[in-house]
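Q: What changes when zinc ion is included in the input?
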Amino acid sequence: MIPAIKSNEIEREIFQRELDSFVPDKALDAHAHMWAGIPNQKNGSGLSPWIEKDMTVTLFHDLMEDLIPRRTIGGLLLALPMSIHGLPTTTPDSVTFQAEHIAHQAESDSTCKSTMFVSPKLNPDFIRQEVKRLNIGGLKCYHTESDRNPTTDSDIPEFLPEEFVRIADEFGLTVTLHMVKPRAIADPSNQHWVRTYCKKYPNMKLILAHAARCFNPVWAIEGIASLKGLPNVYFDTAAIGEVGSCEAIIEHLGHDRLLWGTDFPLTHWRGRYVAYGNNHCWTGPEDAHDDKQDLYVFHGLEQLRVVKQAAWHQRLSDSQVEDIFFNNLAGLLGMAY
Ligand SMILES: [Zn+2]
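A: The predicted holo structure follows.
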């Protein structure tokens, strides 16, 4: 069942007071998850009640309309990683089942593009065939498909093999990459592989999810400059709670590399990510005393506050803000309007 979550009075007030005059009329979400429903899951997570039913673009529009009213919102519909949140393991059949649903959803809406999940467990020829057959716009990989233990220490090719990047280059696809390793883009191996793939495959568009996974801005401040000079690397703002990471991207690479993204449906969780020490964590109602539990607000609103603060600190113009919310991704996806 998809939880019936509605904005409350505090959330509506925050949107009206702080965000209504900031968010442009049209926006493309670079990181909006979409899935075909999987009933009776085992190995569930907080996402599992959502995943029992199909997520559709109609439902996406309805939920976003409540969070960010009176906007036209489309985006890049990201496949969920297989084998987690109760999804089945990666096989050609399980991946196709999801990819067909997402492609079908994207077909029905000119503001949306589809992606498909890729894993080293899949044959590159199978991926090439499905990309062609379903007119897929982008690839989505995830570290949980790596053989390394723990997978969070994986080098990028262990879950995004070079052959898949070659396919993205061949078809001009986006690749959404949530890098791992404790220090994200401050890690030399991550810097090396991003540079190598981007230089060798210039027609592939690499989107580094979660601001190159810089939930703690110290990693972005240290590492982002290492990506200077690459024309095909981009960053989504999904789930980022600290303004310093977005600022480092704008400062070193320019606002035209930043893409608003939400990690929908995590937009509709209440809470946010915070940085501490050399780490980061989620904080939500479960961390608060009883009388404070209701004061957490939608994660999607907290993320908009971050983008607004970054734009303000970096003195961005209205048209540069429109680029972050719409034009940058529209250009990448070849959307005509
Ligand atoms: Zn995500």
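Observations recorded in class: The mean pLDDT is 96.
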